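Pasting as-is:
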Amino acid sequence: MKKGLLRFALTLMLPVGIQAATLEAVPVDAYRPLKAAEAESLGEGFEAAWLARLGEALGSDISLLDAPEKGQLRFGKLGSGAAYYSSEIGALAASKAGPADWAGLAGKPFCVTTGSPHAELIAARFGGVARIYSSAAQALIGLKLGECQAVVGERVLLQQIAELPEWRRYDRLLPALEYPRLTLRVTTADAALQQRIEQIVASPEGQDALAEVTQHWIDEVAFQAYVLADTLDCH
């Protein structure tokens, strides 16, 4: 943990008697935006890493539960709360043979991850046919295998993938889609706790921590996609 964030955490710790308690967090939906590997559990990925940093700042451990009816914290696609992930919708296609715009997906398959809110949107708006993959890395490899015409996901991830040399044949980003950004949030019914969470997330130290965790998992998705591609090349 960075010293600046540690100092900030000490100033925002919950009152004695609350700070030592373990908080329980549950996802409100199945979408995992930066899931790097098929076998990656909820407790191992991007959300778990960020919630751990949030817990450090709150002075509480945060455990993740699968049961949506339980837990003091809820996170995912919520209408309100402190935002921990936000991005425009993006699509990555083959440099030469891929579609040049979103309309080019009409009647064509596109790769998308499990639970993605983009699948229904692209199918309804452009007539694309969703192919579902269990991780972002596998969805990317689906493009290289020719199983889809484009990978649809968050532009914050796909733009960095497009810049990697191993993706030079698959580096066409479709034009920005005029649609509200996907924003994932964390919320709680405890007003005092929610206020502290929002203070932490909005602070420069909190934003730095969030950016660090997000970048780490973007890099992890890119690495896992590289490993999968290398495995395919060896067969």
